[in-house]
Amino acid sequence: MFLADQWQDYEVLDCGNGEKLERWGEICLRRPDPQAIWPARKPELWGQAQAHYHRSEKGGGAWEFLKKLPERWVMRYRDLRFYVRPTGFKHTGLFPEQAVNWDWMSGLVRGEAARGKTVRVLNLFAYTGGATMACAAAGAQVCHVDAAKGMVQWARENRELSGLREESTRWIIDDALKFVQRETRRGRRYDGILMDPPSYGRGPGGEIWHLEDELYGLVSACAQALCEDPLFFLINGYTTGFQASVLGNMIDMTVKPRFGGVITADEIGLPVTAGGVLPCGTSGRWQRA
Fold it and tell me: Edge-to-edge, what's the strand order for the sheet holding 61-65?
């Protein structure tokens, strides 16, 4: 398992009964988590929650604020800084489990930077920029692509908060596949590509995205956008029922035949202070041999 166990500002205090209790800095949130189907280990901790997201039987849900919270607050991971806040669909603007991938990519980028090479990274479905910030801080030139204008603005604010150079990042509001296809036609190539695709979504032009129908085509297109001697390739998956080997197989069929290299596919997890590990999706990784 890829375990994100280096956080100081974030902590899963406990999980169970379809929920998780998390510490975000000094604020405790209680949110749904369909993976946590066991009983909570320490029920006495759950009274610490300052806000509780309740799912609706009709879909979606809403926050119940048990105490007044700031409009947003700052989370730290190593030298990075991020704004977080409770959003309308249970999320906070940050996926803490992805820190394990940030560290993996950052290490590869720094290794190239030490040899005097500038690494070009393409981040698709880039959200509020966690991976973008990590790669930029390590010395990469990052192209940040997301279909939602509001998410790109949030990522810009995170870049400024982290004190990273504006010129380290190129900001794009576009459909991921269409953008990759245009980049390939333009002859633009990348040393590293990562993607965090949703199960379902819409592009800025109303394009409908179904993961099981679209992912292989996107991965195949991205393989064509890699440079002649690429550094890494990463696919993240959160769709229930998609095993890590699905992601690994796609990389094995699209990236490895051309570049060789090493594939590792596994679950991502977060340690739970009350005991155990909370599974948080999957990742398929490729890196140069």
Answer: 10-16, 19-24, 27-32, 51-55, 61-65
Point out which residues pair with 20 in neighbouring strands. Answer: 15, 31
Rounded to the nearest 10°, the torsion over CA 250, 255, 258, 259 is -140
Maximum Cα–Cα distance for the chain, whole Å?
Answer: 58
Angstrom distance (rounded) from CA 228 to CA 220? 15
> Of 7, 46, 34, which Cα lies nearest the Cα of 274?
46
CA–centroid distance for 127 within its chain: 8
SS3 55: strand
Answer whether 81's CB lies under 8 Å from 10's CB.
Answer: no
- Percentage of the chain exceeding pLDDT 70: 97
pLDDT digits (tens, 9 = 90+) for 94-121: 999 999 999 999 999 999 999 999 999 9
**Collapsing DSSP states into helix, strand and coil, what is residue 265?**
strand
Span 50-64, pLDDT tens digits: 999 998 877 789 999
DSSP code at position 167: G
User: What DSSP string describes 215-228?
Assistant: HHHHHHHHHHTB-S
> Is residue 181 helix, strand or coil?
helix
The answer to whether 31 and 19 are in contact (CB under 8 A) is yes
Tell me whether strands 141-146 and 169-173 are parallel, antiparallel or unpaired: parallel
Instruction: Please report, as a single letter, which amino acid is at residue 31.
Output: R
Tokens of 195: 């993607």
Alpha helices by DSSP H, the chain: 99-114, 130-137, 149-161, 176-186, 211-224, 244-254, 256-259
Strand duo 232-237 + 61-65: pairing: unpaired
Element (H, E) at 280: strand 277-287
Token code pair at residue 265: 């596919």
pTM to 2 decimal places: 0.94
Query: Who contacts 44 (Cβ-Cβ below 8 Å, separation ≥6)?
Result: none
Q: Which two tokens stand for residue 145?
A: 């692509």
